Amino acid sequence: MSKSRRQKLVLVLALCGVAAGTVWVSNAAAARSKVEALIGPNTFSCEDPADAAVVEQEFGDRDEAVCPMPAVRLNKGLECTFSFIINNAGDTEVSLRALRIIGMGPNGAGAHMPRLTHNSIERISIESGDANFVLDEGLGAHDSVEISAMVEGIPGCMSVGGAAIFDRTLTVTLSAYGLRGSVSPQGPTFALMGTLDSSCDE
After folding, report:
1. Mean pLDDT across the chain, nearest whole number?
2. Residue 116 CB neighbour total at 10 angstroms
3. Residue-wise DSSP of 94-115
């Protein structure tokens, strides 16, 4: 083969490689975009039903929608589960890799999530305000899975009538075609509500 023909062949193979890589990345992004994390207004289930609540949260200006948002009251002996659904509406299987819940680590404000009841997965042992979990399972096309986390009270200060609203606190890391990305629910996820038990006011 002549030198010029070899150069042309190398160029063609290089262009094909770039095109294949572009398609691979595009397919992976498309597959991940079909996955969503869904949180309903009754996502908290508590040993004491009085610890679970639903509050109204305004989105945008006064003319925007008011939507229900799940909440827990920081009462003494708090024991609840926080459940949500990961739904794959696409035609491609994806792999769930990690879960991060902001504000629910060991340094949280009045409550934390130490473990998932789903496969008894323990929180990664790091000092953080966030709860981090390692996931390792596939989610098939047009399939869904419910994941629940234990919610327990911890020392913290939140005044009566006060509230901590967590916006898009849930992040699920997933991969498709070997490439990673993440999904989060849109808007506020849940709230913690202050009580006499959580107050540090004198």
Report:
1. 80
2. 21
3. EEEEEEEETT-STT-SSEE--E
Tens digit of each residue's pLDDT (9 = 90 or more) over 96-146: 999 999 889 888 778 999 999 877 789 987 777 889 999 999 999 999 999
CA 73/CA 162 separation, integer angstroms: 10
Q: How far apart are CA 179 and CA 40, in angstroms?
A: 29
Give the C-alpha distances (Å, rounded to integers) separating 141 from 32, 94, 145. Answer: 11, 8, 12
Domains, the chain, with CATH or none:
34-193 (2.60.40.10)
**pLDDT reported for residue 1:** 53
